[in-house]
Design a protein that fits this description.
The protein has 177 residues and is α+β, with helices and mostly antiparallel strands. The protein is 25% helix and 29% strand. It has helices at 8-24, 30-37, 41-53, 71-76; strands at residues 57-60, 66-69, 90-92, 95-96, 101-108, 117-123, 134-137, 146-155, 160-169. The longest helix is centred in the N-terminal third of the chain and has 17 residues, at 8-24. It is elongated. The mean pLDDT is 83.
Length: 177
């Protein structure tokens, strides 16, 4: 776990920067981050100064400039910096989500079917996800796990979808590994 304590606002902004940077692989303008987190661009610029001081962000000058996360940013968010992550597809309301990828799946209360929830830690924007939306996650690369459910909550600060699980299946076959 990171030793840097970030405010919820800093964490939300840094998470948005990391997600946008992984999608575009270029410096991200403050306006793009502001739009992603639904805040004023001036607020983003102010927060970026404190994130630069913490060595979590570097500024890129010039017309194609903006901000890039440092390796410290990934550590502070406890996110792995992955060159090419295995793709775990996400479907939202029947449509494939192009710029989203599942980083981790945590299951809770599996012993109680009525309370079974999955925390889906994502890479990419959660802006379009809302309570009550139908989501399908998977298949995962090794176990071929597929989870279907309804969004029960969205944690923007930690980039987590909380799903009420309706169906969870993994084929009972020998995996390819």
């Amino acid at each position: 776990m990171s030793s840097i304590e970030l405010t919820p606002s800093q964490k939300t902004i840094l998470t948005a920067l990391v997600n946008l940077y992984s999608e575009r692989e270029e410096a991200i303008k403050g306006e793009a981050i502001a739009e992603e987190v639904n805040r004023n661009a001036g607020t983003i610029r102010n927060q970026m100064q404190s994130l630069k001081a913490l060595q979590l962000v570097e500024g890129v000058p010039g017309p194609k400039g903006g901000y890039k996360p440092t390796s410290n940013a990934y550590n502070a968010l406890d996110v792995q910096e992955i060159e090419s992550a295995a793709e775990v597809p996400v479907t939202h309301e029947g449509e494939s989500v192009a710029d989203a990828n599942v980083q981790e799946i945590d299951l809770s209360s599996v012993h109680h079917p009525d309370l079974c929830r999955a925390e889906i830690h994502m890479r990419g924007s959660l802006r379009e996800f809302h309570e009550g939306d139908r989501v399908v996650v998977g298949p995962t690369p090794l176990s071929k796990l597929v989870i279907e459910g309804v969004v029960d909550g969205v944690d923007d600060t930690n980039n987590v979808l909380i799903l009420k699980i309706e169906s969870m299946e993994a084929p009972a076959e020998t995996p390819d590994h």
